[in-house]
Design goal:
Chain A is mainly alpha-helical. Helix content of chain A is 59%, strand content 1%. Chain A has helices at residues 2-10, 35-38, 42-71, 81-116, 124-143, 171-199, 212-244, 258-291, 298-311, 327-339, 341-355, 364-387, 389-395, 399-429, 435-461, 478-504, 545-550, 565-568, 602-618, 621-640, 661-664; strands at 551-553, 559-561. In chain A, a hairpin with a 5-residue loop joins strand 1 and strand 2 (559-561). Chain B has helices at residues 16-25, 36-62, 72-75, 78-103, 107-137, 146-177, 186-212. Chain B is elongated and about 60 Å long. The chains are: A mainly alpha, B mainly alpha. At the A-B interface, helix 6, helix 7 and helix 8 of A face helix 1, helix 2 and helix 6 of B.
């Protein structure tokens, strides 16, 4: 006891500008670049996800620019048909699996624990594993460019076109195995995040007090949980066809290629909501903050999100209206597709009502959020037109479809993501992105986006098919194709503005803990948050709890400011905790009493083994054995390694072990557990 | 109370042990009351339902395409498969006995029943290998027909799941022998048991759909 009390006194608080990241490391991993390879801190993993996805975004964007450059003029010969097929296949696959999904995972990793008042996710090492597996899958997929050609079967990979007869090269093999690997990452991550949200909420954080972003991520993770195994089955069947001469899609033997379409779209349609629901969550966080109003109809937004999650499983065959599935199926899926627009419309109306009569501040995150709502409505309405099956037959596989899903996935999801970047940047890095560059970024992006994809509606209705590498002169498509290409390069420029903004903002003054006067509890901790997130586990009493800590109503029903955000948690103006009579709970947190799980090599080692197995399947089977052996060793190493290193001595402050926190101050450390009987 | 105490995990439930012992100490708390590990296994099994759902649906769609090869009821040996199914179902009972043993602190009985479960599971897998070999000799190769591909893939996936379960059971036995699986960690046995029972239930479905329904 005495030791603990003494230690408490001698410990400094987390001081401003000094992130005490080195404190909790195992001896093998120090601070600096090396720590990123073994980190299991959800915040660092979130940053890794985001940074990696942005690199893939640049790659996928380049592929998009090649597509647009090729289509700028009729009969263009910039790339040949074969290269064009590879480029658009990789563009779609990259943007969906290696950009939008990991970007949403980045936000989920970083903010779910912070928003529910937890110190980390439920399984920190599995979290690291998910990231490394995602990276391994992405690099594996891209290595196909160097190893005999990228996949060329489109992101949908329909057999028999993707079968061995019509795609004899290794491209499709890379595609199958790459998606299997990233699928493992998504599945593990979804289990981890679901457990985190269900199990690790702070006291008082009931489900209906969770921020909408958490809700939408929860729905998304359930969709992933159930959708990933379906695509896994589909990919396995195709893989067995290609590798072991199975007959799943062998039409000569009487197989039915429609099986692939069903399996793919049972995954593929929930996947659409996997991509858009988190963006809806981000926007639902941004709109209230910059409208200075609570979110209108919180329960409606939550329940319509859940409804979308359920109904998303019943609409898949609208991707197959021209596949000959029969009039009854077409009618049923047309109806369900119309119905799913209802909960989506509920959300849109709630967002509008949130802004209605609000004191709207047009800061950059708000601009992106408003653009999200507008463009998502356009994309959503063109989506409803697909449900009218005669109309669908007309527009199937035309540029109208391309326009539609880019309005939803780029105009929707990616605008939500960029809004999220500008909104949470000060929380993650402690500094704002520049407002001026941000506005330039926004306007070039909004103009470039609409100039690129708006004209595709017209092209599609004029009959221009998608996935063609060139078109003849005199089809009436020349002008709008050129316009779209100009827009695409403007979009490319807007991304460069964003990158420049990151560079230009690196020396901005510290933003403080709560720069936007925001509503949710992630803003109550310093920026950037300390490794343990919350010095004291928060107790939640309201929806938008942080807002209610800052504001109250006077006797006339007027809003009165109680505390500044900094004062609520005794932070100084830079977001560092200060000792204070009124807030004894925040005075000098004893970091030694907060035991975070130790970093580990095993997630990385296990992840490295997976592409080894995949290369082995393609080239030589002994590599499969090597990879499998490595997986086995790594899993056992992982399982027998204690989550918290017993040798971790918090070297900055002296090596002696100390008493568990719960013994000297239970209130301070409500979740600490003595587990001496745990490890031998 | 020395170095071990520093294993304390402030993040709720980052280890199996923290959750089980924590629940005993009353200091550990999760929002649902279930430990993270058990909840994760339940959620994972939910995902597995869709995996086998996809495989079973594919089989149902493709099973009539027997081509020139033998069809399902030309080759199935229902009595043999019934016996091996019975063996697998009995392994669920020994699994329950293993859990019950560790919960009352009888570590030796726990190991015996875990081994028995693994043995019964291995018997089932051995039966499957025998069956596959027999089918192959009767002319049903993996590439013979659409039906054969679907049949071997579906049952093969299940066999791999049983094999993974056996590996987990034997790992528990080794842990127990090394004194690392005491009464307070009975939840580890329970979680492996969840997986094991799930795999058994899936077999009931596969056996019914593939072997019994004409």
């Amino acid at each position: 006891m005495a030791i603990s009390d003494q230690r408490m006194l001698e410990l400094p608080a987390a001081t401003n500008g000094q992130r005490p990241l080195g404190v909790f490391r195992r001896p093998t991993a120090t601070t600096g670049w090396r720590s990123w390879f073994t980190t299991i801190d959800h915040k660092k993993i979130g940053i890794l996800y985001g940074a990696t996805a942005l690199v893939f975004f640049a790659l996928g964007g380049l592929e998009g620019l090649i597509i647009r450059a090729q289509l700028a003029t009729p009969d263009n010969t910039l790339v040949d048909a074969d290269t064009y097929n590879r480029i658009f296949t990789m563009h779609g696959t990259t943007m969906i699996f290696l950009v939008v999904m990991p970007l949403m995972a980045a936000f989920a990793n970083y903010f779910l624990p912070l928003m529910i008042g937890a110190r980390d996710v439920a399984f920190p090492r599995l979290n690291g594993f998910s990231y490394w597996v995602f990276l391994a899958g992405g690099l594996f997929l891209y290595s196909s460019f160097l190893l005999g050609g990228a996949p060329d079967g489109a992101w949908t990979g329909y057999p028999p076109n993707a079968g061995l007869t019509f795609s004899p090269g290794h491209g499709i093999d890379f595609w199958i195995l790459g998606l299997q690997i990233t699928g493992i990452a998504s599945l593990v991550s979804s289990i981890n995040l679901i457990v985190t949200v269900l199990n690790m909420r702070a006291p008082g954080m009931s489900l209906m007090r969770m921020p909408v972003f958490v809700w939408m991520q929860l729905v998304t993770q359930f969709l992933l949980l159930f959708a990933i195994p379906v695509i896994t089955v589909a990919l396995f069947l195709l893989m067995f066809d290609r590798f072991f001469d199975a007959n799943f899609f062998n039409v000569e033997m009487g197989a039915d290629p429609l099986l692939w379409q069903h399996l793919f779209w049972i995954f593929g349609h929930p996947e659409v909501y996997i991509l858009i629901l988190p963006a809806m969550g981000i926007v639902s966080e941004i709109l209230p903050v910059f409208s200075r109003k609570p979110l209108f109809g919180y329960p409606f937004i939550v329940f319509s999100g859940i409804a979308i999650g359920f109904m998303g499983w019943g609409v898949w065959a609208h991707h197959m209206f021209v596949s000959g599935i029969g009039p009854v199926a077409v009618a049923a899926f047309a109806l369900s597709t119309m119905f799913i627009a209802v909960p989506t419309g509920v959300k849109v109306l709630n967002w509008l009502a949130t802004m209605w009569k609000g004191k709207i501040e047009l800061r950059v995150p708000m601009l992106f959020a408003i653009a999200f709502v507008a463009q998502f409505v356009i994309g959503g309405l063109s989506g409803v037109t697909h449900s009218i099956s005669p109309h669908n037959t007309q527009q199937h596989d035309t540029y109208y479809i391309v326009a539609h899903f880019h309005y939803v996935l780029f105009g929707g999801a990616m605008f939500g993501v960029f809004g999220g970047f500008y909104y949470w940047w000060p929380k993650v890095f402690g500094r704002h992105l520049n407002e001026g560059w941000g506005k330039l970024h926004f306007w070039t992006m909004v103009i470039g986006f609409n100039l690129t994809f708006g004209p595709m509606h017209i092209l599609g209705l004029q009959g221009m098919p998608r996935r063609i590498y060139t078109y003849a002169e005199g089809m009436g498509w020349d002008f709008w194709n050129l316009a779209a290409t100009v827009g695409a390069f403007l979009l490319g420029a807007s991304f460069l503005v964003f990158v420049w903004n990151i560079v230009a903002s690196r020396n901005n003054p510290p933003a403080g803990a709560d720069p936007w006067d925001a509503r949710t509890i992630e803003w109550s901790v310093p920026s950037p948050p300390p490794p343990y997130n919350f010095a004291v586990e928060p107790t939640v009493t309201h929806l938008d709890d942080f807002w209610h800590q800052k504001y109250t109503e006077n006797e006339f029903g007027h809003l009165v400011r109680r505390d500044t955000g900094e004062e609520v948690h005794s932070l100084d103006e830079h977001g560092a905790p200060v000792a204070d009579e009124a807030h004894p709970s925040a005075d000098g947190v004893d970091e030694h009493d907060i035991h975070l799980p130790s970093p580990s090599y095993w997630p990385l080692v296990t992840a490295v083994a997976l592409p080894l197995i995949a290369y082995g399947l393609i080239y030589t089977y002994w590599l499969v054995g090597l990879g499998a052996l490595l997986v086995l060793v790594a899993l056992y190493g992982w399982a027998t390694e204690p989550p918290v290193d017993p040798e971790a001595d918090h070297a900055d402050h002296g090596p002696e072990p100390h008493e568990p926190a719960a013994e000297h101050d239970p209130a301070r450390e409500p979740v600490a557990v003595g587990v001496e009987e745990d490890e031998e | 109370m020395s170095a071990e105490v520093t294993d304390t995990v402030a993040t709720p439930g980052t280890s199996v042990a923290a959750s089980t012992t924590g629940a005993a100490a009353g200091a550990h708390r999760t929002s649902t009351g279930l430990s993270n590990e058990k909840l994760a296994m339940w959620i994972f099994l939910g995902s597995e339902c869709l995996l086998f759902g996809g495989l079973v649906s594919s089989y149902l769609l493709l099973r009539r395409n027997v081509g020139d090869g033998p069809g399902p009821h030309d080759i199935f040996d229902i009595p043999f498969t019934s016996v091996s199914s019975f063996v697998l179902l009995m392994s669920s009972m020994t699994m329950v006995l293993a859990l019950s043993a560790i919960q009352r602190g009888d570590l030796r009985a726990n190991r015996v029943w875990l081994c028995a479960t693994a043995l019964l599971g291995s018997t089932f897998v051995a039966g499957q290998v025998y069956e596959f070999t027999a089918f192959y000799r009767e002319g049903l190769g993996y590439t013979t027909s659409v039906f054969s591909s679907a049949f071997y893939t579906l049952t093969g996936f299940h066999g791999v799941h049983v094999t993974v379960g056996i590996v987990m059971l034997l790992s528990l036995v080794v842990l127990s022998l090394r004194g690392r699986l005491g009464q307070e960690r009975s939840e580890a046995v329970e979680i492996v048991g969840l997986y094991w029972h799930f795999v058994d239930i899936v077999w009931i479905i596969i056996f019914t759909i593939v072997y019994l329904i004409p």
